[in-house]
Design a protein that fits this description.
30% of the residues lie in helices and 26% in strands. It is an alpha/beta fold and 484 residues long. The protein is globular and about 70 Å long.
Length: 484
């Protein structure tokens, strides 16, 4: 079975609108016709590279590649020419689709020459390059069976109301952008693309298109909540967020501004075909009102595993830990690839090491504490940056925060807070010290006009560490050392 079966099923269920972008709309049947035309063009190529933003041609190219039986490879158009050239060179003979080529996929000539849907569920459907926040991007291979497992385990075919519409402002080279297409098409929900995000344009699009469902990354959510007045979006019933850790202060503002929407928090990775765990609308509501501290704390979790997904917390030696204990997050399930070009990532029992640190509570809610590589070891103590960042974001002058560990001859690493906003560094350190143990108080505070991030909002910590290491070597970072 091939992901193109989703398109075939959608097209056979009626001629309802499927995809909207730039004032144009394709029905599922129209999308199917164009995808078969594209497949005829793609069949003699080893892969199809897509270098462009969200466009009406994006689903045409994806399903055209699937019908042709070749991998689809969306590339990050925000990369430099040198970086893109390196990725393109890894796919000799592939067809490269750029922005200038996309409209040609919408106006084909001749007979598409319909052929049966390829039936190799083990073939590579999509190659996605990981965002590379702490290392160079790797080519994650997602096979048809992985993507179909996610869709079939989380969606009911044709379950959406005819008027439902999902706003997608995520880039096509991210797994969430890919899976939003597959899941919404399968459910029968019209997909509305917004190629370039800004808060005002997003809100206007929700109203203009009668959007009922949307997904954003935390940086988008932060911009949408810069204005704290209630949002005038009466059709919006579901607002999902994911792609990176969402700071709790941002989420609390969003829950107030979009009080009429049910919130869904999602946690997943490129290698896992999108979401692994979900914190649903009822979880959000209970966390805001319940008197039980353990229930209120769930607002800081990523929810419970989806059907077909198992989660396990292990120590550094690979031994499973009891609930409540922090360790390394491992996952297992049909949707999980864990495979890279030239290398596999699953152990003998099918478990995948996410390289995240976290813990499970007694009810199976997963709390992700950050990347294992991000953990700061100060004086022998493991410190998760997220805890400190959330405290700093409660300071009235701070808009964004990243806490890093830089080499220190006495403590091993010292804590440096890189902030966007304004304020007195010593007053900010005092603010943090009042709310954290002194060992978790930043040793230094540095202001920047912006933080380097991926398109989905993940902080590029390796970029900041490299920059600050150079500054430290040249002049040192000022700041009083915290007490151990």
């Amino acid at each position: 079975m091939n992901i193109a079966v989703i398109l075939e099923m959608a097209a056979s269920a009626g001629d309802r609108p499927a995809v909207t972008e730039g004032g144009r709309t394709l029905s599922a049947a129209g999308l199917r016709r164009l995808a078969h035309h594209a497949a005829a063009r793609f069949r003699d190529r080893p892969a199809v590279l897509y270098l462009g933003r969200s466009h009406l041609a994006y689903p045409v190219a994806l399903f055209g590649a699937a019908l042709a039986g070749v991998p689809f490879v969306p590339l990050n158009y925000r990369l430099s020419e040198h970086q893109l050239a390196e990725l393109i060179d890894r796919h000799p003979g592939a067809l490269l689709l750029t922005e200038d080529d996309l409209d040609t996929l919408l106006d084909p000539a001749g007979d598409p020459g319909l052929r049966p849907v390829p039936d190799d569920r083990d073939a590579t459907a999509v190659t996605l390059y990981t965002s590379g926040t702490t290392a160079a991007p790797k080519a994650a291979l997602l096979r048809h069976r992985h993507l179909l497992a996610y869709v079939f385990n989380t969606q009911e075919f044709g379950s959406a109301d005819p008027a439902d519409a999902s706003l997608v402002a995520l880039p096509p080279y991210h797994v969430a952008g890919l899976m939003n297409l597959l899941t919404n098409l399968y459910a029968g929900r019209r997909i509305v693309y917004l190629p370039d995000f800004d808060a005002e344009g997003w809100l206007a699009m929700v109203k203009r298109e009668g959007v009922t469902h949307a997904m954003v990354v935390p940086t988008m959510l932060a911009r949408l909540t810069a204005d704290d007045t209630p949002a005038d979006v009466p059709t919006l019933r579901s607002l999902a967020y994911g792609g990176a850790r969402c700071p709790r202060p941002v989420l609390e503002r969003a829950l107030r501004r979009f009080s009429g929407a049910g919130f869904v928090g999602a946690y997943g990775l490129t290698e896992t075909s999108s979401s692994l765990c979900v914190l649903g609308p009822d979880d959000h509501r209970r966390a805001l009102t319940d008197e039980d501290p353990s229930v209120r704390a769930r607002l800081g979790s990523v929810g419970q595993p989806l059907p077909g997904v198992e989660v396990q917390i292990r120590d550094e030696g690979g031994v499973p830990l009891e609930s409540g204990a922090s360790g390394l997050v491992f996952v297992r399930g049909e949707q999980i690839s864990g495979e890279y070009e030239g290398a596999g990532g699953l152990d003998a029992e099918g478990w995948f090491a996410t390289r995240d640190r976290g813990r499970l509570d007694a009810d199976g809610y997963l709390f992700v504490e950050g990347r294992a590589d991000d953990t700061i070891i100060r004086g022998g103590e493991n410190i998760a940056p997220a805890e400190i960042e959330d405290v700093l974001l409660r300071h009235p002058g701070i808009e964004e925060a990243a806490v890093l560990g830089l080499p220190d001859p006495e403590w091993g690493q010292r804590l440096v807070a890189v902030l966007v906003g304004a304020g007195d560094p010593e007053e900010i350190r005092a603010f943090a010290r009042q709310r954290l143990r002194s060992a978790k108080t930043p040793d230094a505070v540095v202001f920047r006009p912006e933080l380097p991030r991926t398109a989905t909002g993940k902080i590029l910590r390796r970029t900041l560490v490299a920059e600050l290491a150079d500054v430290q070597e040249e002049s040192g970072l000022q700041g009083e050392s915290a007490d151990a």
